[in-house]
Amino acid sequence: MSDPLAAAAERLRAAGVENPRREARLLWDLANHEETGFARYVLRRGVREPFAYLSGHREFYGLDFAVGPGCLIPRPDTETLIETALRLRPDRSARLSIIDLGTGSGCLLVTLLSLYPNAHGVGIDVSPEALAWAARNLEAHKLADRASLIETGWPEESSPGFDLVISNPPYIPSADIAALEPEVRDFEPRGALDGGPDGLAVYRLLAPRVVRMLAPGGLALIEIGQGQGADTSSIFSEYGLRPLEINHDLAGVPRCLALAAAS
Ligand SMILES: C[S@@+](CC[C@H](N)C(=O)[O-])C[C@H]1O[C@@H](n2cnc3c(N)ncnc32)[C@H](O)[C@@H]1O
What we know:
Blueprint: H1 4-14, H2 20-30, H3 35-46, H4 51-55, E1 57-60, E2 63-66, H5 79-88, E3 97-101, H6 107-115, E4 120-125, H7 128-140, E5 147-151, E6 162-167, H8 182-187, H9 201-213, E7 214-223, H10 229-238, E8 242-248, E9 254-260
């Protein structure tokens, strides 16, 4: 009898999946060692559907998030925004008001509300599918009473202002999307990735809005793509926001632009 694990590993290897043996073993465990379910998972992974969409989970900053088609899978790079928030706003008892622009799975909002137990927040997203995942995650972490979710494009106004504006917007140049891994290109929502011709289109939309959203003394933390530090700093500066620092992710890539409200 053929070994289902070896056959699956071979199939995944042929499909270009990295670490095919390890993935085959993970899928076997995910299927509770049941051959029909395992075969289905191997078929899906074999067309490069992301593992996290199959398992339905991804960890972010030590917390578990439900994920699936329709929301971006949280990335470790994005944890840089959380680390920056903790460093620049060290008082965990602060009654911060937070807005997360493009909340997706809700990973940033949920994590911040967990770390700041007196904070409250709003997550906005244009995608109803993404918001359904965010709602599920707020509920699972028992944070729904401190958060609201709004289906909208980038908001024009917000009153009163927020103490913390956080965002991981789409920032991949449109022409680069075709070269991404199939897991990202073919399965994650394009609306979560596409930053227009030069990757900076959404920052240009966000800058004037973030200025109007910040309360006096407020802080904005914006994720940026590789090599976008200088351009994004100048886009936000044009609208009067003051760049405070740019923090690097674990790979050493500048990832989080911290900005202060104009004084
Ligand atoms: C890069 S994903 C970030 C998701 C999540 N915050 C994270 O860090 O994993 C960007 C999010 O912005 C949302 N988005 C894209 N265009 C938008 C728009 N015009 N208005 C509001 N949200 C938008 C997408 O639906 C997506 O959920």
